[in-house]
Write a structure and sequence with these properties.
551 residues, alpha+beta, Glutaredoxin, 7-stranded mixed beta sheet, 13 helices
Length: 551
């Protein structure tokens, strides 16, 4: 063998070694819908992660096909994590593979907050119940976070829950890792004065906010005792939330909020511009005179270049309500479109960067934006198939059964959720301060979001007064993305943009054709086994041709 041939041989061997070693920590996503290709924000986050993370997944052992699919998808995703950052230790655990009794294991898992799935297995004409824990625990030696691997709402089958869970896997694990760092949680305050939403009505939202923030309640009316202390305490919160107030704001209370904002604070307002007594409307008379909900905030919003109109939006794209039809034993409960409950998609923006699902509004009013130097972002609109109802006027539930004529719903789209941010001037710039003890500031950067629906953040309750998940409508069994939208709003207003929820990946997943899956698995196995030999064969052919060329 001449020198040229030897050199070529060593180059090819070196190239082969280099290639195989580089591929050992590199994954090529060959799936049809790129399910293991992470979004850019996830990749950047993983690359910056500089601590050891242990992830325990309780999906191992003999599993039904659909759960085995969930386990495999989780395994592949976490392999992708590890290919980006080697600080991950991943364990797949069979919770029943130890000496403890099955009942004790189940009780212990439940005590940790892991709710099991009970699956009926009818193979071989025998009926067996399987207990499965589709959960993961993320740990960094200081704290731990529970991750549910399925995603379900009331009425969903196990298969649907698994598909939804697979689509959310990337977000759930990235979000869980971020939640491990709880040392410096930002503070968020719910205003409890002015007859705002009760704790029960915002229970589910608060429960989810507590995963990321330190949640407090704040009574603005404490200013009557010590206004300076009230203001000082208020400024410790980067965000205050005012959900569905029903009492007027005094001049002093508006001054407190105004000065809080020009000193850098952010405010989320959820307001009903029109007063609708839903107890009377739905339970008794079936109609109610809609009137202005006077909170005395017009000048305040005008100062932030916003104007909420005292009108109701009636939209063809709407949620149904269930109405009783018939009498006595012949009574049927039927859904009818209720134009006072618009459904819409949030606008793509810095708050909603991808599709998070549909939003559900109830008795919502149009918002006008006024020309100013302050930057406004429209977050949600009604559809273009709507009409405007002026008040005072009656809302009659019986109109739901009337056929809808699209020709009557031709009003232009109205904004129903708006972000106002920038260097806001104080409402009290050229006015006498109601609280002389507070040093008045004339302007400052702040963020404000106005949603013209006071109920938007309120969850329903069951007959035992337990809170349903926010966005779930128990009357129609529909589920909406109000919670995701609100969580993103809070993340943005607190400058926690790294926590923003993205829309789930739309992944086509076959869970039912076992034979097809097995066939595919066999083909993939064969390809995996023969690919190295094919690669060596190609190298051998190239080597011979090169040797002949140089000889």
């Amino acid at each position: 063998m001449n020198n040229n041939s030897k050199i070529l041989k060593y180059i090819l061997i070196g190239f082969f070694i280099l290639l195989t070693s580089s591929l050992s920590n590199y994954r090529i996503d060959l799936t049809e819908n790129k399910r293991f290709t992470l979004n850019n924000s996830s990749i950047l986050f993983l690359k910056k992660l500089n601590k050891q993370i242990t992830i325990d997944i309780f999906l191992s052992g003999k599993l039904p096909h659909s759960y085995r699919k969930l386990s495999n998808e989780t395994r592949e995703l976490l392999k992708t994590f590890k290919s980006i950052n080697n600080n991950f230790k991943i364990n797949f655990i069979n919770p029943f593979k130890n000496e403890m009794s099955r009942k004790n294991i189940i009780d212990e898992m439940i005590s940790y907050g892991m709710r099991p799935d009970y699956i009926t297995d009818t193979n071989n004409q025998n009926i067996n119940q399987k207990t499965i824990f589709p959960w993961a625990i993320i740990n960094d030696n200081n704290s731990s976070v529970l991750i549910p691997l399925t995603e379900s709402t009331l009425g969903d089958s196990n298969e649907i829950s698994i598909i939804n869970g697979i689509q959310q896997l990337e977000y759930k694990f990235i979000d869980g890792i971020k939640r491990l760092d709880t040392k410096q949680r930002k503070k968020v305050a719910f205003i409890t004065s002015h007859n705002t939403s009760s704790n029960l009505k915002v229970y589910d939202w608060i429960k989810n906010l507590q995963l990321y923030y330190e949640i407090s309640v704040f009574d603005l009316k404490k200013h009557k005792r010590n206004p300076k202390k009230t203001f000082d305490n208020l400024t410790t919160f980067p965000l205050i939330i005012i959900s569905n107030p029903k009492e007027k704001f005094s001049n002093t209370e508006k001054f407190l909020i105004d000065q809080y904002q020009v000193n850098g604070g952010s405010v989320l307002w959820l307001i009903d511009a029109v007063n609708i007594n839903k107890e009377i409307l739905f339970n008794n008379q079936g109609e109610f005179l809609a009137v202005k909900n006077d909170l005395d905030l017009d000048d305040y919003f005008f100062n932030y270049s916003l104007k909420i109109n005292y009108q109701l939006i009636k939209d063809i794209y709407c949620s149904p309500i269930v109405i009783a039809d018939g009498t006595d034993s012949n009574t049927k409960y039927l859904p009818f479109p209720w134009v006072y409950y618009p459904i819409t998609k949030p606008v793509k923006s810095k708050i909603n960067k991808s599709n998070i699902g549909s939003l559900w509004f109830r008795f919502v009013s149009p918002i006008d934006t006024l020309s100013s130097s302050v930057f406004k972002t429209h977050l949600a609109f009604s559809s273009k198939f709507n009409q405007i109802q002026n008040i005072p006027s009656f809302v009659d539930i019986k109109t739901a059964i009337n056929p809808l004529n699209p020709k009557n719903y031709n009003h232009k789209s109205s904004s129903i959720a708006v972000l106002s941010e920038g260097n806001h001037k104080s409402l009290y710039k050229n006015r006498i301060s109601p609280i002389p003890d507070i040093e008045k500031k004339d302007a400052g950067f702040s963020k404000l979001i106005l949603i013209s629906d006071g109920q938007f953040a309120e969850n329903q309750t069951d007959y035992k007064n337990n809170a349903h998940e926010l966005g779930y409508d128990k009357w129609t069994n529909n589920f909406y993305s109000n919670k995701k939208f609100l969580m993103n709003i809070v993340h943005y207003l607190t400058n926690s943009n790294d926590l923003l929820i993205t829309g789930s990946k739309k992944i086509k997943i076959g869970l039912f054709d076992v034979a097809k899956v097995n066939k595919r698995s066999l083909a993939e196995t064969i390809l995996f086994l023969i690919s190295p030999f094919l690669f060596l064969l190609i190298l051998f052919i190239l080597s011979n041709k090169a040797r002949k060329y140089f000889s």
